[in-house]
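Handover notes (outgoing to incoming on-call)

Open items:
1. Sugar dehydratase: sequence verified, structure written out, both below. Nothing else pending on this one.
2. Nothing else urgent.
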Amino acid sequence: MTSKKNNFWHDKRVLVTGATGMVGFWLVKDLIAAGARVVAFVRGSDSPSVFSYSGDFRGVFLVKGNVEDFASLERAISSYKVETVFHLAAQSIVGVAHQNPLPTFETNIRGTYNLLEACRLHGDIVKRVVIASSEKAYGLHETLPFSERTPLTGRHPYEVSKSCADLMAQAYHHTYGLPVALLRSGNIFGGADLNWGRLVPHTIRSFLKNQRPIIRSEGRFVRDFLRDYMYVKDISHCYMKMAEALSDKKIHGQAFNVSLEHPLTVLELVGMIQKLMKCSHLTPKVQTIAPGDIHSRYVSASKAHTVLGWKPKFTLEKGLEETIAWYRDYLSTHPDSLV
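Sugar dehydratase structure tokens:
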């Protein structure tokens, strides 16, 4: 899905960090379709991804480096005269952050301030910066849904890394006038996510293998607590919409929540996939583990609707249908991934 046909992106020089991730994959695809000249900043040590062998990205300028290395980021921006930056690179798995917080802090915090500083130093060419934040930056609050006025009070490693990165981006706007905006989303699903430990790809692959999906979590979390789930194509569209809106200085420094505003439990989401794949005979197995992130959290997207004019184009069901079709096709041509 591309942004509105207005030639905004034609020949724009765009840097995307984290381009080999699921969101990066679809965003780069949409930017190319809109006519942008894309520079993909990817880890030199990245494991194979859909991005790495997709023929869709032959026209992309590929820069290998780590966001923890300021010099490589600064060089990518200056060498390619980048006008627009989408910063998606992150360690995004909550469990990994809990078990081993230091690499998460290095990537999510150091990587973000390196990116912001490189953009500040090249403020003569960088005209807009969009940072991937998260609803987890809000931490835990009793009042739901979270709005953009909800304080950022992360307490656990992943939450703190997102709270910190979010606040640093705001600091660079308020102190240096950096033209930056932030997107705070809940859980994102869609094709091209090859992390089989995540709920949606694991569930779809399990059903395709005629196996019961395994949900490793505390029982109350999967039954009782609500979360946002968003289809990746809607997220990509919103990133592009935000970058376009940064032409208006009133958008600088602002954060926007994005959501379908239809939160549901883990079991409800698995049940939807189960129904769409006609696998009612394969009931999920819940394996109780030590409690961790056990509470409801979801956001209001009213500001994005009002200020950006953004609306999701996919219902949850339609997004899941497309995602199931993507994995069915992918796994039919990559049978090793079924093992």
